[in-house]
Amino acid sequence: MTFEPISADFYGFSTLLSDNEKEGLQRIRDYMESEVRPVINEYWEKAEFPTHLVPGFMATDVARYAFPETSPFENSAVFRGFAALEMSRVDASMATFIGVQEGLAMGSIGVAGSAEQRAEWLPKLASGEVVGAFGLTEPLSGSDSAKGLRTTARREGDEWVINGAKRWIGNATFSDITIIWAKDEADGQVKGFIVPTSTPGYSATKIERKISLRSVMNADITLENVRVPESLRLQNARSFRDTARVLRLTRAQVAWSSVGVAVGAYDAAVAYAQEREQFGKPIAQHQLIQDHLSRCLGNITASIAMCVRVSQMLDEGTQRDEHSALAKGFCTARMRETVAWAREAMGGNGIVLDYEAARFFADAEALYSYEGTHEMNSLIVGRSITGHNAFV
């Protein structure tokens, strides 16, 4: 196998990966190109998820890299970031599926579960035998989840009774389990629960009429006297600080995914510019088009550099909330610029799904907002800069 950096990796950052990591990245790239790209526009337009692709997708080991119980080889956070980029440059919805499956569902169990819970659930999630979802956001609680959760959990003997509602929960229309975060009525602390979706009182309803990440199966969840045993409470989740540990792992991954979305739009614009003729020559020969494309590449290159460093810091154990927040805020903002320039370079065809830039342009809006809005990430960084909390 010969691994080559993608053309948008202008400075060749992916050459930092080990040979095993390059092989793993190539498997993901090959599957995304051969199986996902040919069908994803159709599924995006229908607002459906290509569930038939999940077994083959998981067979690439795409979700086996984060934890010792499931990792096929020692790998770095930089590798996992490039995996998110490779997925997102073809389709951000498939990358979001894995982000929820591995980053949030597996991440919750990996970070806050007991050794027994890790051994039971992580291999099943990594193989795709079990599909997971992550229930934190609520209809009236998003950015203020640390203090504003309304979903409650009450212990009765060896069971917990959960009541409340969740919103924007990815994978939730077809997940087998959902990690539900709820406030313990006894001590007011946030705790996590592995909730099988077949449990009486649990229901999930697909959110319709989205204009972004249309293939992601987001759902509204209601929980009415949902009973789960103590054995399904995440044993090391004692407060929202433990929830935040999970989010710290995934926030930088969203930064990587946003770079992938920018790369997808950029690649589509470059290909289009080579073929589209105006005034008797390919528009790639026009100065303004070259300026658009060079600015796109500048944004992508700067964002990859930031993502590589913040991932290295995660491996080193030096990454803090403000580091991942700066990466997420900066990279999603640059993504927004890049997809707009790429779409603009394609003129009217830029809003037609057949030319792909339109899908990346629309999907960028969701990545800009989830895993912490741009404003919330700015305030996390601002608190680090000034020492003052400006959230309220």
TrEMBL record:
Pfam families: Acyl-CoA_dh_1, Acyl-CoA_dh_M, Acyl-CoA_dh_N
Spans through the membrane: none
One of the record's GO molecular function terms: flavin adenine dinucleotide binding
Keywords in alphabetical order: FAD, Flavoprotein, Oxidoreductase
Domain Acyl-CoA oxidase/dehydrogenase middle: 133-226
Segments forming domain Acyl-CoA dehydrogenase/oxidase N-terminal: 19-129
Record's keyword annotation contains Flavoprotein: yes
Cofactor needs: FAD
Keyword Flavoprotein: yes
Record-linked PROSITE patterns: ACYL_COA_DH_2
Residue ranges annotated for the Acyl-CoA dehydrogenase/oxidase C-terminal domain, each copy included: 245-385
Domain of life (superkingdom): Bacteria
An example Gene Ontology biological process: fatty acid beta-oxidation
UniProt record similarity statement: Belongs to the acyl-CoA dehydrogenase family.
Annotated protein name in UniProt: Glutaryl-CoA dehydrogenase
Source species of the chain: Paramicrobacterium agarici
